Amino acid sequence: MNIDIEKLIENIDLDMLTPEIEPDRQYYYIKKCHEYVKQLSQKLGRPLKANVTTFGCQMNTRDSEKLLGILEEIGYEQTESEEADFVIFNTCTVRENANNRLYGRLGRISNSKKINPHMIIALCGCMMQEEKAVEKIKKSYRFVDIIFGTHNIYKLAELISDKLDSKSMIIDIWKDTDKIVEELPVERKYTFKSGVNIMFGCNNFCSYCIVPYVRGRERSRNPKAIVMEIEKLVKDGVVEIMLLGQNVNSYGRTLEDKTTFAQLLIEIEKIEGLERIRFMTPHPKDLSNELIEVMKNSKKICRHMHLPIQSGSSAILKKMNRIYDKEHYLALVDKIKAAMPDISITTDIIVGFPGETEEDFLETLDVVRKVKYDSAFTYIYSKRTGTPAASMEDQISPEVINERFNRLLKEVKSISSKTAGKDVGKIVKALVEDVNEHNPSLMTGRMGNNILVHFPGDSSLIGKIVDVKLDQSKGFYYIGVLCGEL
Ligand code: SAH
Ligand code: SF4
Ligand code: F3S
To answer: Coil, helix or strand for 92?
Structure first.
């Protein structure tokens, strides 16, 4: 936890009027909730526990770290168990099954609340930005205490305080915001790597996608605030950062002093002590030559590009409103590979978009074969109410989609298995992240190209960048041996 923020909270006087200005207002509520947690904890004779469950993408993962930062400052201890005093689900709604998973979990948790009546249950995140979902929760899951959305997660302490003063469900959902509140507590999952938001929202409106509706309009953070945050993280021991945005290539367009993503990278590269820079997601429609150049000349930007294609058919891409076609995408990949021959390229693909014909699907397979992705996330098209694609004719039958999906999976696997293992014998740099889940004598490190390597070692190496010789390929990962620390 950031000591400066802790001091600021300590200095707050609860007898004064509630501050109007952020983040002071939240510091006030954090302190107020802290009093409640302290008293209840004394009464129960044990510390109070909080459980945060995250669905969805890295944006949500980062948001959850902010939620946890606030909860810990309030006085809750983090627990992995849902049998907690405060439980929050940070939801995702990008595909139908994300929603169903939440309902399943809520069904289970209602019993815990009966046993532990002071338990507070909160829901936030993308799914809560959908009116229909909130209506359903209000009707069928009345034991939920707090609901808020994606734009006001910084208000968690205030909402908890409201709940403590009220018997009814607290609902606070904003349609959109132009506000970015800085300087709130964050509790990072890893000590040595961190996500960093560089922008919020999305303006692209791909026709299948719900994100622009639930995350609002695109807003970029000020480059100075980003650099300052990373400098602080580095001081705290972080060596790798992942810059986060729905389309990082349009970073800076909403700023008064226009800055490009490539220019931001140049500034971040200068930060001393920072070793590795990653980013996601770049949209192929506006990936600039400037960015390729900056990557090529950089010593810190990892040789990995996650470049979602979605479909290989230009006709489908047009209906998806992706603003690029197959030829543009393939030319872009050629350009990237020519500049950085050792780069690893990964992608996202949707199967069964409305109107997708067998020919369209074959175009997707063709791109997969041509690009030779190191790996690909493959998704079955999911109809999201409110998006243009949901009302398109020619929705594809589940049988056809499943058959195509299996063919795609086979192709992706067969191609990545051919390229897997190409680095056997090489010495590479890996950031040691964890003790191996299945074999505690092995450590797990991540190479620059995002591929994992397991090697004998001990937990004192966690957070360090080490040289590892790749001995053996196991398909999606390597087995190696430590050569010596950097
Ligand atoms: N901003 C990123 C993607 C964020 S969503 C980008 O543009 O690349 C992550 C992935 O979910 C998308 O790349 C897409 O492949 C998938 N996705 C989004 N909406 C979907 C839907 N309705 N059905 C199936 N997959 C979807
Ligand atoms: Fe969704 Fe497209 Fe925005 Fe990505 S760029 S979040 S796929 S609308
Ligand atoms: Fe899901 Fe929201 Fe991310 S809908 S994929 S958590 S932006």
So the answer is: coil
**92 annotated ligand-binding residue:** yes
Distance CA 346, CA 330 (A): 13
CB burial class (10 A; 0-12, 13-18, 19+) of residue 328? middle
Comparing 481 with 9, the larger pLDDT belongs to 481
DSSP letters, 326-358, are HHHHHHHHHHHHHH-TT-EEEEEEEE--TT--H
Q: Which ligand ends up closest to the CA of 322?
A: 2
Give distance in angstroms: CA of 476 to centre of ligand 2. Answer: 27
Are residue 260 and residue 407 in the same domain, yes or no?
yes
Are residues 467 and 376 located together in one domain of the fold? Answer: no
Tell me the residue length of the chain.
Answer: 486
Distance 357 CA to ligand 1 centre (A): 20
Are 151 and 229 contained in the same domain?
no
Q: Within a 13 Å sphere around the CA of 255, how many CA atoms are in the beta-carbon half?
A: 18
Examine the domain organization and report whether 56 and 72 are in the same domain: yes
Residue 1 has pLDDT above 60, yes or no: no
Total structural domains in the chain?
Answer: 3
pLDDT in tens, 154-165: 999 999 999 999
483 is in an annotated binding site: no
When pLDDT is cut at 50, 70 and 90, the band that residue 124 belongs to is very high
The pTM (predicted TM-score) of the whole model is: 0.94
